[in-house]
Structure formats: structure tokens, C-alpha cells
Specification:
Blueprint (H helix, E strand, L loop, with lengths): L1 H10 L1 H49 L5
């Protein structure tokens, strides 16, 4: 039964579209994982800077010094 389904997908264009979308999704996931792996320190620096600025803005808004 499964072999008949796979054979039908192989012969029809609908199966080709499914395979193309699956390969595209796999490529996008691979790129995302690679970007996070190589840019992890950069992302950490951005979030650290943002958190510092938010904390400073909060202290100023509560009447702290500039």
C-alpha cells in the first residue's frame, strides 16, 4: 500500500511539489541553525545591550539621574 502511494507520488507532479517544498523547508532550517550557531555571541550582545538600555530608561522614568 505504501509502495503504491510512493509510486503514485513519483509519477505525478503533485508529489514533486511536495518534495520540493520539503527540501526548501530543510534548507531554511539548516540555514537558521547555522546562523544561530555562528551568530550566538552577536545575538547575546544585542540582547544584553537592549536590556541595559531598558533598565536605564526605566530608572530615568522613575526619577533617577541621567
Amino acid at each position: 500500500m505504501i509502495l503504491l502511494l510512493l509510486e503514485g507520488l513519483w509519477r505525478e507532479e503533485a508529489g514533486q511539489d511536495l518534495i520540493e517544498y520539503t527540501l526548501l523547508l530543510a534548507f531554511l532550517l539548516f540555514c537558521t541553525i547555522a546562523m544561530v550557531g555562528f551568530g550566538g555571541d552577536s545575538i547575546k550582545g544585542i540582547t544584553s545591550t537592549s536590556n541595559s538600555q531598558i533598565a536605564y530608561g526605566n530608572s530615568v522614568a522613575q526619577g533617577g539621574t541621567f
